[in-house]
Write a structure and sequence with these properties.
Layout (H helix, E strand, L loop, with lengths): L10 E8 L5 E7 L6 H10 L26 E7 L2 E6 L5 H13 L3 E3 L3
Antiparallel strand pairs: 1-2, 1-3, 2-5, 3-4
Length: 114
Amino acid sequence: MNEQPADGFGHLLVERSGGIGGMLLVWEVDIDASTRRDDLGPRIAELPWSDSGQSDGVTQSDDAPQATGADRFAYLIESRYGRVRFGESQMPPEWKQLVDDVREVAEPQRRQPG
């Protein structure tokens, strides 16, 4: 699926929680308006959303603590294609690359947990 869907790729949200004081940082990108649309859009569409991390199909409330072991951070990644969660050390390389790319194109916003 290397073509842009008729209604676009939509938004991508990366939320990082944890660390000192449980600080919550959020990066949000409108993929279709991004200068990196042709790179990011197809990659986001091709990621294994239903096979990765904890998806919406996993029974867990959004405000439940994540079992991240020794991880400093937990990541929630959302798009029109799905929603996944990873502990920092369990994140597969293709997802880590996506997070790094989003952090390059969007400014982080601090939000209150909950």
